[in-house]
């Protein structure tokens, strides 16, 4: 038990030291995200317009038995921001302030690739199975305050693929950002 505690303490201390070496300026505007390429440089990630598509199975139309699925969809097979695989991905996300737990409004998820689009299922309703709501918070990350109003997010071992970041507004329930997704891709 004591060795587990010491290991966790060392991990937390290492993360704190890593963030102290970062000299990248905060993004200029709220809702912007930088992907760090080093301790002193980062690239601004694109924000794409998403759509919500709902599709019913054929049996739902014919017999009123089946499932209806809703998905968030982005056009195109990949984000314009592609980075090579590294063991650790670091992001700086600017918010209105950094007083709220970022896990409550920043969700990172991996897209499924279908034909010429990226998508993730957000809900499913079935005649007999009821309703399921899928959470976009699929990828775990560590977070800490960065600068005046940003967060430094650290993600371990992301596999090759396309990823999205949805940003809610922690100070309002307006939902103004729900159809804007920040994107990036990891290549081998």
Characterization of this structure:
The protein has 188 residues and is mostly beta strands. The chain has one domain (2-187). 13% of the residues lie in helices and 45% in strands. The protein contains two helices and 15 strands. The chain has helices at residues 2-20, 58-63, and strands spanning 33-36, 42-44, 47-49, 51-56, 67-75, 82-84, 88-94, 106-110, 112-114, 117-126, 130-133, 142-146, 150-156, 161-167, 180-187. The strands form three sheets. Strands 2-1-7-13-12 form a five-stranded antiparallel beta sheet, with no helix packed on it. Strand 1 and strand 2 form a beta hairpin. The longest helix has 19 residues, at 2-20. The chain is globular.
Largest sheet, in brief, is: 5 strands, antiparallel
Shape: globular
Give the low-pLDDT segments.
1-18, 173-177
Ends distance: 38 Å
Helix content: 10-25%
The proportion of residues in beta strands is 35-45%
The number of helical runs is 2
Question: What count of structural domains?
Answer: 1
What structural class should be given to the helix and strand makeup?
mainly beta
Which strand order does the major sheet show? 2-1-7-13-12
What is the H-and-E element order?
Answer: HEEEEHEEEEEEEEEEE
From the alpha-carbon coordinates, what is the Rg to the nearest angstrom? 19 Å
Mean pLDDT: 81
Number of strands: 15
């Amino acid at each position: 038990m004591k060795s587990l505690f010491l290991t966790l303490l060392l991990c937390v201390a290492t993360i704190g030291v890593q963030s102290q070496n970062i000299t990248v300026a905060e993004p200029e505007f709220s809702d912007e995200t930088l992907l760090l390429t080093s301790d002193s440089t980062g690239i601004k990630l694109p924000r794409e317009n998403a759509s919500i598509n709902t599709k019913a199975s054929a049996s739902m139309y014919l017999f009123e038995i089946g499932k209806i699925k809703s998905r968030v969809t982005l056009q195109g097979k990949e984000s314009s921001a592609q980075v090579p695989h590294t063991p650790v991905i670091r992001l700086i996300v600017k918010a209105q302030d950094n007083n709220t737990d970022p896990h409550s409004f920043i969700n990172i998820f991996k897209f499924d690739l279908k034909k010429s689009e990226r998508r993730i299922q957000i809900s499913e309703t079935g005649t007999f199975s009821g309703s399921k709501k899928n959470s976009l918070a699929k990828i775990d990350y560590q977070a800490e305050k960065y600068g005046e109003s940003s967060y430094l997010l650290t993600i371990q071992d992301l596999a090759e693929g396309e990823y999205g970041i949805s940003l809610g507004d922690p100070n309002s329930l307006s939902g103004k950002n729900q159809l804007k997704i920040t994107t990036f891709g990891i290549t081998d």
